[in-house]
């Protein structure tokens, strides 16, 4: 029997940061479907928002609410904003090296922001943060990391979560028991034919929550990012970061003319791009940086510049073909401000959860911040209520029963995601 104090499913920033905020007396298991780096946090390019000063609270709040069409949970937004400076301090303490400008930090502005409040690490902010969290977690003697293992069910009895069922690479199933379980499995991009997400992120935890009647929220709130690199090939889309437009890049149609405000909220700009594509009868529009961004483009955006070169485009010189792609999921497993789900002993954080902070549409560069703020609060809630009890033992898992249940709940999830998913799904 494998018994832990806390099981965390997912190795993005939410899962890792939760582990770092749990006590060293806790026996923790962290599980990932792929390798440690195979998560969407690692792919985040643009940056992470922070409240600049006391005068920025109201503007930051309003920007987030407006982008979310005022369907946000305002208490969640306020919690995220007021926690942001402490989160940044935590990250700096872990060795995250944000870009500097003179003696201070370099801040950028992205779509739907009223001011520059986004810290960044070139165009690889998620990679920098995730790498530092991974390095620190690996140092912890109380943490075991299990890669290439898939969550296929929860152990539920007496209206409580008692652990998880995992499937390893060989297909073998196993029950693993825990006093508390945190789901941080990311989004649903793998359900779409064109997404900036890793293909293995298929909403597993959300589907399993549906199976057990755990409350979910806003499952039709799917965000399409306005700009991914158009290649004409199937498979994962490469994100052309919002920070490109935030620092001046323009979008033009076939006639070379701008057709929209490049800093519109993502959902509104996506509609403008689709309309222009239809007008031009082309599967893309074009982005231009030359003459519109100050400073060396390859130095500010080394990752994007390098990838574009591999595809035959010079980011500093050429028109770059871009097209919308599925990017983020605002819905998920419903949680409160302590990241508690409707099932006792079960928590969720990051993109797999939904506390309403993003409303109907996420504001650029709020995702890393949200994940860090509410995964830390999950860890604090686990610590506050933790006590060890003998595990409630379950029969050995049956492969056929679990597969049938997961297939059914995944189909239900697809239906609940709604019409937008049908437009983009495989």
Automatic annotation (TrEMBL):
Secretion signal span: none
Pathway listed: Cofactor biosynthesis; NAD(+) biosynthesis; iminoaspartate from L-aspartate (oxidase route): step 1/1
Catalytic reaction list: L-aspartate + O2 = iminosuccinate + H2O2
Entries under InterPro entries matching the protein: FAD-dep_OxRdtase_2_FAD-bd (IPR003953), FAD/NAD-bd_sf (IPR036188), NadB (IPR005288), Succ_DH/fumarate_Rdtase_cat_sf (IPR027477)
Annotated GO MF terms: L-aspartate oxidase activity; steroid dehydrogenase activity, acting on the CH-CH group of donors
SUPFAM superfamilies per record: FAD/NAD(P)-binding domain (SSF51905), Succinate dehydrogenase/fumarate reductase flavoprotein, catalytic domain (SSF56425)
Record EC number: 1.4.3.16
Keyword Nuclease included in the entry's annotation: no
Top EC category: oxidoreductase
This protein's UniProt keywords: FAD, Flavoprotein, Oxidoreductase, Pyridine nucleotide biosynthesis
Gene Ontology BP terms: 'de novo' NAD+ biosynthetic process from L-aspartate
The FAD-dependent oxidoreductase 2 FAD-binding domain, residue ranges: 5-368
Family label: Belongs to the FAD-dependent oxidoreductase 2 family. NadB subfamily.
This protein's name: L-aspartate oxidase
Organism: Trichococcus ilyis
């Amino acid at each position: 029997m494998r018994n832990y104090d806390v099981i965390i499913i997912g190795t993005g920033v939410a899962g890792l940061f939760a582990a770092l905020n749990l006590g060293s007396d806790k026996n923790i298991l962290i599980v990932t479907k792929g390798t440690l780096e195979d998560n969407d946090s690692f792919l985040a390019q643009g940056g992470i928002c922070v409240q600049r000063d006391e005068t920025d609270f109201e503007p930051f709040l309003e920007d987030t609410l407006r982008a979310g069409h005022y369907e946000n949970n305002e208490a969640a937004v306020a919690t995220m904003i007021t926690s942001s400076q402490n989160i940044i301090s935590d990250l700096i303490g872990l060795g995250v090296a944000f870009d500097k400008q003179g003696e201070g930090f370099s801040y950028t502005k992205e779509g739907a922001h009223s001011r520059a409040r986004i810290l960044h690490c070139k165009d690889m902010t998620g990679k920098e943060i995730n790498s530092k969290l991974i390095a620190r977690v690996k140092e912890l003697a109380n943490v075991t990391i299990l890669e290439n293992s898939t969550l296929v069910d929860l152990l539920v009895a007496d209206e409580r979560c008692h652990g998880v069922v995992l499937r390893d690479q060989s297909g073998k199933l196993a029950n693993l028991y825990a006093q508390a379980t945190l789901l941080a499995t990311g989004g649903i991009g793998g359900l779409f034919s064109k997404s900036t997400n890793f293909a293995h992120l298929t909403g597993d935890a959300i589907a399993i929550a549906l199976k057990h009647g755990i409350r979910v929220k806003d499952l039709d709130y799917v965000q399409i990012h306005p700009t991914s690199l158009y290649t004409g090939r199937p498979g994962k889309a490469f994100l052309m970061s919002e920070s490109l437009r935030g620092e001046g890049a323009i979008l033009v149609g076939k006639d070379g003319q701008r057709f929209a405000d490049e800093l519109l909220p993502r959902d509104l700009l996506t509609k403008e791009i689709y309309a222009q594509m239809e007008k031009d009868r082309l599967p893309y529009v074009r982005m231009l940086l030359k003459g519109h961004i100050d400073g060396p483009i390859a130095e500010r955006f080394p990752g994007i510049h390098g990838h574009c070169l591999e595809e035959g485009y010079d980011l500093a010189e050429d028109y770059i073909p871009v097209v919308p792609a599925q990017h983020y999921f605002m819905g998920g497993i419903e949680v409160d401000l302590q990241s508690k789900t409707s099932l006792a002993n079960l928590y969720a954080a990051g993109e797999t959860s939904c506390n309403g902070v993003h409303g109907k549409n996420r504001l650029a560069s709020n995702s890393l911040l949200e994940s860090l703020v509410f995964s830390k609060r999950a860890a604090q809630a686990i610590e506050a209520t933790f006590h060890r009890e003998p595990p409630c033992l379950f029969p050995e898992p049956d492969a056929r029963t679990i597969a049938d249940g997961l297939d059914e709940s995944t189909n239900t999830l697809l239906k609940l995601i709604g019409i937008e998913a049908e437009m983009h799904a495989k």
